[in-house]
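We store sequence, tokenised fold; for instance:
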Amino acid sequence: MKNNLKQYKTIKTNLLKEWSEKDFERINKHILYMLKTNFTHNITIEHGHDENTIDYTSEHRLGEVFGLPYTSGGDFAGVWNTNTQTVTKYGVRLYFRGVAVAEDLKTVLLFEDKQQQYYYFYDYDFITYQEQERRTQKAKEWGELVKNANIIKNKCIEILKPYEGKPYGEKTAQKIGEELRGVAVGLGLSSAWLDSSKYGQGLKVYGKNNKEKRFYFNFLNDENKITTPTDHKGEAVADVEEFNTVAEFEKAGEFVDKMKKKAGELLKLIEEFKTHASRANYYPKETQSTYSVDLENLSRGRISWEG
């Protein structure tokens, strides 16, 4: 599942050096479709266009956005981005340069990095690459949120110390809340605040894209006075365990092909099982739908035999 950018440095198939007049309209139409498909939510236009994305731009307007004049006679023919500075939204910063066409008529999106290294994304390669980079970024952001949440939690405990034994009134709550928000914003997060309701007490920390991390701990006694924060066992409030979330995400990806193989083997067994069971008028609910097989019960040998 790890997406190696190096794999896009190579031209995989020969690129057309000339687009025939009879094929030009068809090729150009397909290019516009592939640009819209690959670029929606995946690029940022920094200069040269009023909007910073093409998410709400129709295909027929993409020529206006990027220019896309046709040239031939060099190593390959192509249409070129002459109107904008357009960069990848996720991952390494790459600049959109233009579009070529392979001999099998696949579109090839051309990007360039700061070192003038070109990258070649065939058909849906770019959307696949960006989706993987988006997920990697989210994993990284989660790791950063957990790390910063621990910092804020420990700072919160320090902030509460001078208030120990004092009533948790509106003004006190507001003052503590302002301090916590200041710490959160200083760490690049959205906000943080203490929460006390019928559902429990604790700290809420909000990061980018409304991602949230909570700590459940008691900081008020029955008289609504501030006490030393403790967990539900009465012990000190521990940090959340931190991981290299990008490495963990990539490690999880290593299991995808293994799961796919095992799932195929299991699906075959389930279909054979269903054939024999149905002949005896039994339809175990754990296997009724191949789209929602209850793997947990199956792994424990729990199969209900209602017929």
Q: What stands out?
A: The chain has a mean pLDDT of 93. DSSP finds seven helices and twelve strands in the chain.
